[in-house]
UniProtKB/TrEMBL annotation:
Gene3D superfamilies: Membrane associated eicosanoid/glutathione metabolism-like domain. It holds the Pfam family MAPEG. The keyword Ribonucleoprotein does not apply. Keywords: Membrane, Transmembrane, Transmembrane helix. GO terms for cellular component: membrane. SUPFAM superfamilies: MAPEG domain-like. It is found in: Membrane. The chain crosses the membrane at residues 7-26, 71-98, 119-140. It comes from the Bacteria. Its main location: membrane. This is MAPEG family protein.
Length: 141
């Protein structure tokens, strides 16, 4: 496997994680409507109804996967466009994936705020280091 492929594989896993959470959320939405009596009109404007906790956690996490990870995807795509990869980029990419997997697990299971916050901070620091390194790379092209 090339360094570039090793750097991009975590991005592909993140994308499939997002798809997985999206499908899980869809399944839970059907459950909430069919078994727990959630009025399907809720999904027109997403307001004025309290969601079951099981659906709320997964929905919030799906939204979370659409907030921070696009900054990671953008960095990876930029590095590919610049034909740039090295061991440090590979390590940062895998570290970001692992931190986000841990965040996903915590957020959708126990949802312990202290653990979730710490893993979130770690993932943000990794992302910041990645972008500082990308900026330095771009400056020295």
């Amino acid at each position: 496997m090339t360094q570039q492929a090793a750097m991009l594989l975590p991005m592909i896993v993140m994308i499939f994680l997002t798809f997985g959470v999206m499908l899980w959320m869809l399944k839970l939405r059907y459950k909430a409507v069919l078994k727990d009596g959630l009025d399907p009109r809720y999904f027109r404007l997403y307001n004025h109804v309290e969601l079951p906790e099981y659906l709320l956690k997964v929905t919030q996490h799906f939204h979370n996967l659409l907030e921070i990870p696009p900054l990671y995807y953008t960095a990876m795509i930029l590095l590919v466009a610049l034909n740039t990869s090295d061991t440090f980029y590979v390590l940062l990419s895998w570290a970001f994936l692992l931190s986000r997997l841990a965040h996903s697990y915590i957020h959708t299971t126990s949802n312990k705020l202290k653990w979730r916050k710490n893993v979130f901070i770690i993932s943000m620091l990794i992302l910041m280091i990645l972008w500082v390194r990308v900026a330095i790379t771009v400056l020295y092209l």
